[in-house]
Design goal:
This protein is α/β, with parallel strands linked by helices and 149 residues long. It is 42% helix and 19% strand. The protein contains five helices and five strands, in the order H-E-E-H-H-E-H-E-E-H. The chain has a five-stranded mixed beta sheet with strand order 2-1-3-4-5. A hairpin with a 2-residue loop joins strand 1 and strand 2. The longest helix is centred in the N-terminal third of the chain and has 18 residues. The chain is globular and about 45 Å long.
Length: 149
């Protein structure tokens, strides 16, 4: 399955975040089957609330493609996007979003709220639970390690 291939790359990005002491979320943006950008959470190391994996990946993809509309791209992210990232997805016009673990406390793609299925002029397709167990385990291990230290 193609989605799993890209989610594995997103998991590699999340592992990098884990090793840096960041909440382990990774993201990948593709276009026509080619990886355009990769990113991971950098809020702690970058000391910036905006440095989520999704926003970083969107920023890099816009730079790589020379425009803000990513309408022929797909986003793969290890954790369900938050409200800020859901807004960035809509604004970047990303038509397909694939995520791994559901986020029942902050998820904005159906778990807590669904900002991607509203009356906007743009509504992406969303597919959740891609490699959910692997994505969830990494996050659980991170918080377990954090509690034990």
């Amino acid at each position: 399955m193609e989605a799993e291939l890209y989610m594995k790359e997103a998991l590699k990005q999340a592992q990098t975040a884990f090793e840096l002491g960041e909440i382990p979320v990774g993201a990948v943006i593709t276009q026509n089957g080619k990886i355009i950008s990769t990113a991971y959470n950098k809020r702690e190391t970058g000391k910036n609330a905006l440095f989520h994996a999704e926003t970083e990946a969107i920023y890099k993809a816009c730079e790589a493609l020379g425009g803000w509309r990513l309408w022929n791209c797909e986003l793969y992210v290890t954790l369900e996007p938050c409200p800020m990232c859901a807004g960035a997805i809509v604004n970047a016009r990303i038509p397909k979003v694939y995520f791994g673990a559901y986020d029942i406390k902050n998820g904005a793609c159906g778990s807590y709220i669904n900002l991607l299925d509203t009356e906007h002029n743009f509504r992406p397709e969303v597919y959740g639970g891609i490699m959910e167990e692997e994505c969830s385990i990494l996050i659980k291990n991170f918080f377990k390690k954090l509690r034990n230290s």
